[in-house]
Amino acid sequence: MSATDTTAANDRDDVAGTTSAAGLPPVRDGLLGQWDQFIGPGAGVVENAGSIGLGVVGAAVAWHSPPRSHARWARGLLTALSFDLWGGAWANNTPACVRWYERPGQGPAEHLRFASIHVHPFAIAAIDGGGARRWVWAATQYAYLMATTAVLVRTAGRRRRMLALAATAGGITIDRVLGPSPSAPWFAPIFYAKLLAGHAGAGALGPWADLPGAYAAGDGIDR
Prior knowledge:
This protein is mainly alpha-helical.
């Protein structure tokens, strides 16, 4: 067995141990296992179909809505971002996904890292053709995302979910005040539904049930 195979086997063992300890369904092997680690093991037909289907709808909307920028890359990038955001807005509010990202070992630092990689506002600003106003819009959206995520992941229980819904509404309001993206006027509701109501808010749009990991146990998080 090669070093790469050994590392992959050890990673699978670590994941299996984590899911077992948390009472989660097991992560499958191969490509299905990669999907499980993305959307959460044990996702049902509706959860999977909704994530993929809504992603396809978002991609189709983007493809048929010409971006403000006439650069060749703009339409392709907007389509890819739309698939990610629309599908993620559904996925991050499903029970399987919430259980996975709230499992033991997933705390405030992990949630902040997840939020930080979503630099989508800057990509949308570039697709809109740039300009000072669009860059201010992008920086404000990103700063709001990070600030509200930092607050949400330090809150637990139903207060976390209620605050996440309020933060989502706040983000949409900011977007309307600054002026929505001409290329993606749907951006703010979908962006914040995925990252605030969904990921940071422990699925505020989903079932109101106790969850495993840091969300349920607290782990030093204020209830």
